[in-house]
Amino acid sequence: MSHETVSVIGGGAWGTALAQAAAMAGREVSLIVRDPAQLDEINGHHTNQAYLGHQILHERIRASLIAGPADIVILAVPAQSSRTALAALDPALLAHRPVVLAAKGLETGTLERQSEILADMAPHAVPYVLSGPSFASDVAAGRPTAVTLAGDDADHTSLLAAALAGPSFRPYASDDRIGVEIAGALKNVYALACGAIEGAQLGASARSALIARAFAEMARMVSAMGGSASTLTGLAGLGDLTLTCTSVQSRNYQFGMELGRGQTVEQIMASGAKLAEGVATTPVADALARSLDVDAPLIAAVHAVLSAEATIATVVAGLMARPLKRED
Q: What is the pLDDT of residues 146-201, one digit of tens each?
């Protein structure tokens, strides 16, 4: 199958950055946006200032309001919007085509992963999951970035990774789609927790301990869902977890910092804070862990804070008072 043309659904920061990466890889890219003014800016000035400032976009990127046929489709809308975005597309555009899922989150209500949503809405599409340590601004600027691309067929996944690889964007192929999806969703939950530790001034030692225990908890979740815990030693696991849990560029980390400073979710949202995928994913992950009978105290703790059932202080005290055990 040809991999010459790419359609990116979603003109936000991440969608535009992935369009940039695909264009730098030599693909012809159609970036699907909703705002006519945004379309005019991208096509006329090669910028998307609302999301990426003055970053100049590649000449191979053309914005459009309507998705047309493409060899590769990249879905880059927020996780809770994936079903709506897919419903608006002609299923024929996705049938038997590789659809790269770039959102990191679990769906509210259904508890579904992004590839499960795709299977519901476009059962003949071929799912791939893109995840790993990457900020949109870095990808768009051509700074070195390595990610994981997971699919079910090893050969096809490798070919797709090669088609999207450019001078500064390096996708590593994986066959553990479930593990990559779960890691991508849960790292946002743990980033909220790490940000809260920073905001509450609990210290770097506490943050490092939380990252290590989050890694173990994530492994339990991945294994329970049929993924491979070994996936977590790579870019989609340790790489993305470390980046998101330590950088103020992370929206989830920023949101968690405000939680740690005593702000409620409502107050943070009212202040104009950017979307933090972990806020919606946390209660879903908590419900999923309970349904799988997986011990996930960190996810439960973040859920308690977000739902105002507990404060940072009481949550930390509860975690520190848990029975001592051997490290796993």
A: 999 999 999 999 999 999 999 999 999 999 999 999 999 999 999 999 999 999 99
Q: Which listed residue (104, 187, 274, 325) is catalytic?
A: 187
Report which of 70, 91, 90 is spatially closest to residue 8, judged by C-alpha positions. 70
187 is catalytic: yes
pTM (predicted TM-score): 0.95
Structural domains of the chain sorted by starting position, each given as residue range(s) with its CATH number in brackets: 5-175 (3.40.50.720), 185-320 (1.10.1040.10)
Q: What is the DSSP string of 282-300?
A: HHHHHHHHHHHT---HHHH
The helix/strand/coil state of 166 is coil
Contacts (Cβ under 8 Å, ≥6 apart) of 55: 20, 47, 48, 137, 140, 141
The overall longest dimension of the chain from CA atoms, in Å, is 62
